[in-house]
Amino acid sequence: MTIPSDPAPSDHSDKDALRRATLARRDALPADVRVAAAAAIAARPLPVPVTAGAVVAGYMAIRSEIDPAPLMRSFVEHGCALALPVVVGRDAPLMFRAWAPGVPLVSAPFGLLEPAAEAPVVVPDILLVPLACFDRTGHRIGYGAGHYDRTLATLRATRPVVAVGLAFAAQEIARVPATAWDARLDLVLTESEVIDCR
């Protein structure tokens, strides 16, 4: 696959342009390709060692995102507990509430689904991260709100957490114009490979 090059300056307009171009490529992937990609990621051995009871924070896929549900089920089969993110505020890190497959979710802003308010708040050991595009150094462009950058900075200030980006191979770019504030991923999983960015 040819990886598109990106402009040199690292400003918001560059990130916006990269986001739009990569999301257009992602949107163009046929539904059966998306399903097969999610299954391929989940069929591999887990990308990180886990201990029983480790908390894995996933997400509910929206739009054309790769679906983390098969991988989340694989973590459960290895004794992990699951959590989902909750948007607390525009400039706040995400909060995570415990969740298990089959437990109903509630509608939240931006078309998201979240655990109900009575679900316990937990702190993840492993964070599955959605993204618009990524590079091989572990930098990513998200959707522009900065929630995951703030969340990873907050979590990593107090304890180790493994950040695992999930993406289609078509979302890779040559270089993300990252800043010192952008949190890096430890791994990126695509349908074709496991990319270790550490």
Automatic annotation (TrEMBL):
Its EC number is 6.3.3.2. It catalyses: (6S)-5-formyl-5,6,7,8-tetrahydrofolate + ATP = (6R)-5,10-methenyltetrahydrofolate + ADP + phosphate. GO terms for biological process: folic acid-containing compound biosynthetic process; tetrahydrofolate interconversion. Substrate binds at M60, E65. Keywords: ATP-binding, Magnesium, Metal-binding, Nucleotide-binding. InterPro entries: FTHF_cligase (IPR002698), FTHF_cligase-like_sf (IPR024185), NagB/RpiA_transferase-like (IPR037171), TAT_signal (IPR006311). One of its GO terms (molecular function) is 5-formyltetrahydrofolate cyclo-ligase activity. ATP binds at K15, D16, A17, L18, R19, R140, I141, G142, Y143, G144, A145, G146, H147, Y148. Its cofactor is Mg(2+). It is an enzyme of class 6 (ligase). Belongs to the 5-formyltetrahydrofolate cyclo-ligase family. This is 5-formyltetrahydrofolate cyclo-ligase.
